[in-house]
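Re: [help] complex structure
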Amino acid sequence: MDIFIQQILNGLSIASVITLIAIGVTLIFGLTGIINFAHGEFLMIGGIVTWLAVSAGLGFPLAVVLAILAVGLMGYILERGLFRFTLERPTNGFIVSLGLIVVLQHVVVLFWNPNQKSIPRPLTTVWDVGGVRIASVRVMVILITIAVVALSFRMITASRYGRALRASVEDRDTAALMGIPVRRYITGVFVLGSALAGLGGALLIALFPITPFTGGTMVMKGFAVALIGGLGNIYGAVAAGLILGIVEGFSAGYGFSQWTDAYSFALMILVLIVRPHGLFGGTSGPRMAS
Amino acid sequence: MKEDRRADLFESLRSLLPVLVILALIALVPLFSPSNRFLSLAISAGINVIALYGLSVLFGQTGILSMGHAALVGVGAYAAAILARDFGIGFWLALPAAALASAVFAMIVGIPSLRVGGHHFVIMTFAFGQLLAIVLTNGGDYTGAATGLDIAGPVTLFGADMTDLTRYYLMVVAFVTVAAVASWAIIHSSYGRTLRAIRENEKLAASLGINVGRHKIGAFVVSGIFAGISGVLLAYFLGHISPSQFSSFPSIYLALMVMIGGARLIEGPLAGGILVAFLPEVLNLDPVQSRIVYGVCLIAVIMLLPDGLIGGIVRALRAAFSGKPKQETEDCDAAEVRQ
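Output below.
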């Protein structure tokens, strides 16, 4: 039972990071149709920025803010400089993101070598609750994610910007006709998604050491979660993130750890075969003249 | 009518000619006694080019992109290694067997993946590729786990030992030629036209009675055959294969090569494979720098020359010769423009 609770906690903390990626992925896809595989690299850069900041003697909270700002800015530059030109042909946007993966990874390798990077745990306390050892850093990751996700929900469901955003995801052209500046929302979503990935990277490096190649597996899990939940569906992404995190936690706890990475892919393939629009229903991307 | 046909055939043969001439020149390279390093690079480039010709049928003609193509190459390579180890089957018999294995794997991946439609197909192939790498890594002694498998077997042709670098090089050039001709034959057959109809307008193609789903899977299976053969050549060339050679990044590089070369032209895969293999040598870059250059090239090609490098050059030449480019044919397949 102790192991059970501990594994759920471990699973949930990883699920938090994956959910942060999945929200960005799902929003960007829902609005632009672009499958941005480089999102995992955004996360990795967030981790690297955190590592640099902490190594330079800054505190962890400040490093997190820096990571969010830096990756958000990167998202803005890339959207303005590259992705904006691929809106008419989302497949090209996808290919550009593949190029970005290669470039971003190797730029990081070039400057900061390919080895693992880690920071001292920002919180070292381990609570002992009735024999269950709970690492406070994991609780911190889960709580920050819950707060950020709740805030995003609030923004998307209650504010008029959120309503306009959802209208644009539903039908870009009609939304534009209603006077919603869809292009600006696309930029906004790229920045928001990137900032969330930056936060995810900062949280990830608080949990595990990262390498310049961490982004690859993480983005696949983010995509798996986004697809399982239904692309464009934020609620679905969060729910699917929880499912995946718990499944991975269990399998690691009960001796199948070498298969952990396989679950997300297998689960995704299964869900797509049975329910191509995800468990919770999503959009199939913006309708556009193909 | 018959005259037209013959003129068509002549025209399409003319499009094959440049590739054959280039390949003939490439086959003459050993006369200049190149270094072993050059030959090894050229052999790996050639092995990639074979897989790229399959990928060009899939992406260039049918318009669907596979991001797990290295996995198909891997199936071929592992099939060759396992057949050699467990059944003592040599190179030549392994070729059809591995091609079959990759084709079957492509079908297993293709049926569910293509069912879920365009956007998701790319992700599905990527996921299957990752899954295969995980399965190979966890396969224990049968797949050699993370260290992979050794393959030790002489490759002989009419009693001559082909493992010598120069001979292997010539053999790979021959295989590339077969792949180029096969891909050309597919492009210029009615099957190729069917695939292009699907690429241009899936719904219209379906309304004409074309079984879109089956043809897409068919194109994927065909590309799998190319990949399987390339896998056998790779396994026997390297003598050792491991899961990491066939995971996600090799797949990205294959897609990158076909993009850089241009998927729709018969010269594209050849140019892409050679450029990507030799660019670091020519520019004297280390692997990290060269990968950055590839990435930048890929982005630049997509943003500036959506038809790939060769497609862009051909278009520029055509524009220079005919005064102004014809607007309607801009987006069309260059091979079709010629017809």
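Chain A is about 70% helix and 5% strand.
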